[in-house]
Automatic annotation (TrEMBL):
<dbReference type="InterPro" id="IPR050204">
    <property type="entry name" value="AraC_XylS_family_regulators"/>
</dbReference>
<dbReference type="Pfam" id="PF12833">
    <property type="entry name" value="HTH_18"/>
</dbReference>
<keyword id="KW-0238">DNA-binding</keyword>
<dbReference type="Pfam" id="PF14525">
    <property type="entry name" value="AraC_binding_2"/>
</dbReference>
<protein>
    <submittedName>
        <fullName>AraC family transcriptional regulator</fullName>
    </submittedName>
</protein>
<dbReference type="InterPro" id="IPR018060">
    <property type="entry name" value="HTH_AraC"/>
</dbReference>
<dbReference type="InterPro" id="IPR009057">
    <property type="entry name" value="Homeodomain-like_sf"/>
</dbReference>
<dbReference type="InterPro" id="IPR020449">
    <property type="entry name" value="Tscrpt_reg_AraC-type_HTH"/>
</dbReference>
<keyword id="KW-0804">Transcription</keyword>
<feature type="domain" description="HTH araC/xylS-type">
    <location>
        <begin position="210"/>
        <end position="311"/>
    </location>
</feature>
<keyword id="KW-0805">Transcription regulation</keyword>
<dbReference type="InterPro" id="IPR035418">
    <property type="entry name" value="AraC-bd_2"/>
</dbReference>
């Protein structure tokens, strides 16, 4: 039978305390702090499939944290995967930070401090297993905790729909089926951990840099493209994104500007029956301030955008020479 805990019938002044106890009872002891003292409502439903605990939680904005003091009082050694259904969250464990949105997965260990910060109302599924059922090394578990799992490729792409279906159907499974399903989840979690532990960090970094560059090129015309939006799209922190670009000889923001200037330079040098205005070209490639665009273009090419276009039209050249020089 499902455990259902909800604030629906709880007086407003008692909801926070009730919800704190509800989440601690359904998952592990944690501290829950609603955002900005706003009205708070939440609902959590939990089912046991053998030794697997499946919980479905929906609540208003707030922060959920497991502190060293709580771990000392209730040292439950559980490993867990959180699946965001809606809303967003920032998860922190072992000094790593994962930005999560709908459909994202994160792996964590309840034996070490962690926190989830939810800036808006959210829904999430949580899958918990005893640590001892996973035949993997502690060092391997620590390598995957606090990281968002890639759900677009590999095992993550298989795991996400499986876990979503499992959570929705958990109340309907008889005990015998539940035990068998728990065994499959153990195998999937162990495989996920082992796969992550065997990866070469340099290969991961190179792959991520290529992915970030491709993302920038796809979103180049979007004025909101920024280190924050790029980090969010790749489930990494802004700080880690900047670390990735330490070996790229320029910052993320400068790389975005360079790619935009190159695109503008090509378009301004192109001959055609219709010649767009300089400001139209700038807007098309993500520059919202014409004056800033003109200054950046002159600094990179040594000519104003209009001088650049006139020079190429007079020469009858369609191609762009060497790219901009950013200093």
């Amino acid at each position: 039978m499902s455990l259902v805990l909800t604030t629906d019938t709880v007086p407003d002044q008692e909801k926070v305390a009730y919800w704190n106890d509800a989440v601690s009872r359904a998952l592990v002891p944690v501290t829950v702090a609603p955002r900005d003292g706003r009205r708070f409502d939440g609902r959590i439903t939990s089912d046991s499939l053998g030794y697997l605990r499946v919980s479905r939680m929906e609540a208003d904005a707030g922060r959920v944290s497991r502190t060293p003091a709580l771990i000392e009082r209730s040292p439950e050694a559980l490993v867990a995967v959180g699946l965001m259904v809606s809303g967003s969250a920032t998860f922190i464990q072992d000094g790593r930070r994962a930005e999560m949105g709908g459909g994202d997965l994160v792996f964590y260990d309840t034996a070490r401090p962690f926190s989830f910060t939810y800036p808006e109302r959210f829904a999430t599924h949580v899958f918990q297993l005893p640590r001892h059922v996973l035949s993997v090394a502690d060092s391997d578990i620590k390598r995957v905790t606090g990281t968002a799992i890639d759900t677009a490729h590999g095992l993550g792409a298989v795991l996400r729909p499986f876990l979503a279906t499992l959570a929705d159907a958990a109340p309907s499974y008889p005990a015998a089926i539940g035990h068998r399903l728990a065994g499959h989840v153990v195998d999937l979690f162990a495989t996920l951990i082992t796969d992550h532990a065997l990866r070469d960090p340099d290969d991961d970094r190179d792959h991520l840099v290529v992915s970030v560059r491709a993302h920038i090129d796809r979103k180049l015309a979007d004025p909101s493209l920024s280190p924050e939006s790029i980090a969010r799209a790749h489930h990494i922190s802004v700080r880690y994104l900047h670390r990735l670009f330490e070996g790229e000889d320029m910052t993320v923001s400068r790389f975005i500007q360079q790619r935009r200037l190159e695109a503008c330079g090509r378009e301004l040098a192109r001959r055609g029956r219709v010649t767009p205005t300089v400001s139209a070209v700038a807007r098309r490639w993500g520059f919202v301030n014409p004056a800033h665009f003109s200054r950046a273009f002159r600094a990179a090419y040594g000519l104003s955008p209009r001088e650049w276009r006139t020079l190429h039209l007079e020469r009858g050249e369609d191609e762009q020479p060497a790219g901009p020089t950013l200093t």
